[in-house]
């Protein structure tokens, strides 16, 4: 948070499950499995429990604290990928695809530039790359994020960043991990010849890959897929579910008609498509 918001912010942290009481409301944070530190917020008042989930995924990625189902009366859930077309392969299967792609590119004496969100997804990829295939370099934004995580006890590979001083000869079948904002910028020139890949849940739809002009799309998301959303919501045993950020109308209709769950849309001030 200090990396994102500045070192001088007034910051208080709590452990998962630690209870704070404010104005008679018992408040606790519980793992959301989205990225390191991401939390669902449980609110209990006069015997009623509500949980605001935020962004979450139910697959244990080996980096974030795994999603914890929390029983409640009311549950606020995202549904970014709340359509049946969005069903993820396991992280292991996707990483096998990424490693095979890197190996093929290196054999053809090309570098591999892989675009992934700087916090969460990039670290998942880094931890599961086959480092025997070659050298891995990081865009500065990802390297800075890694340093903040490492300084706070997160166990991830400490890999070199790309700098102006890095000679072009170092990029010989290498893997370079960068945020999507670097795509198509002059920063890319020193990696030529290269192929590009992008990791996002939106890659499940081929048209998205074409629009982003990547050579290869890998379906890897830090959000729950269709089945994950359903299993997470059912595990809460909530009497009422509020849906936000995504395919709210169609998913609410499915939960009401097919699952018998009282689900309604919740309008927010956010919810535009992002890199997920």
How are the strands of the biggest sheet laid out side by side? 1-2-3-4-5-11-12
Task: Give the CATH H-level superfamily of the largest domain.
Answer: Ribonuclease Z/Hydroxyacylglutathione hydrolase-like
What is the oligomeric state here? single chain
If helices are DSSP runs of H or I spanning 4 or more residues, what is the number of helices? 7
Task: List unreliable stretches of 5+ residues.
Answer: none
Residue-averaged pLDDT: 94
Describe this structure in words.
By secondary structure, this protein is an alpha/beta fold. The protein folds into two domains: 2-86 and 223-265, 4-Layer Sandwich (Metallo-beta-lactamase, Chain A); 91-218, Rossmann fold (3-Layer(aba) Sandwich). Helices cover 25% and strands 22% of the residues. It has seven helices and twelve strands. It has helices at residues 2-5, 91-107, 121-128, 140-151, 206-211, 226-236, 248-258; strands spanning 19-22, 25-31, 39-45, 48-52, 74-79, 111-115, 136-138, 175-178, 194-199, 216-218, 240-246, 262-265. A seven-stranded mixed β-sheet has the order 1-2-3-4-5-11-12, covered by helices on one side. A hairpin with a 2-residue loop joins β1 (19-22) and β2. The longest helix has 17 residues, at 91-107. It is globular.
């Amino acid at each position: 948070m200090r990396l994102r918001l500045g070192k001088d912010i007034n910051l208080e942290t709590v452990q998962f499950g630690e209870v704070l009481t404010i104005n008679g409301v018992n408040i606790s944070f519980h793992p959301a499995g989205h990225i390191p530190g991401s939390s669902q917020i449980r609110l209990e008042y006069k015997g009623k429990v509500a949980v605001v989930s935020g962004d979450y995924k139910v697959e244990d990625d080996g980096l974030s604290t795994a999603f914890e189902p929390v029983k409640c009366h009311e549950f606020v859930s995202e549904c970014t990928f709340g359509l049946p077309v969005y069903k993820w392969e396991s992280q292991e299967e996707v990483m096998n695809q990424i490693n095979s792609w890197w190996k093929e590119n290196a054999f053809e004496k090309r570098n591999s530039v892989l675009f992934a969100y700087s916090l969460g997804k990039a670290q998942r990829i880094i931890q599961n790359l086959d480092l025997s295939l070659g050298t891995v370099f990081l865009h500065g934004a990802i390297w800075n994020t890694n340093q903040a995580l490492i300084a706070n006890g997160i166990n991830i590979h400490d890999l070199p960043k790309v700098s102006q001083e890095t000679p072009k000869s170092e990029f010989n079948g290498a893997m370079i991990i960068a945020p999507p904002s670097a795509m198509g910028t002059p920063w890319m020139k020193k990696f030529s010849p290269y192929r590009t890949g992008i990791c996002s849940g939106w890659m499940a739809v081929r048209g998205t890959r074409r629009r982003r002009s990547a050579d290869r799309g890998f379906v890897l998301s830090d959000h729950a897929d269709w089945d994950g959303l359903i299993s997470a919501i059912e595990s809460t045993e909530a009497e009422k579910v509020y849906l936000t950020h995504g395919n709210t109308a169609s998913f609410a209709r499915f939960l009401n008609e097919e699952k018998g769950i009282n689900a309604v849309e919740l309008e927010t001030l956010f919810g535009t498509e992002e890199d997920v």
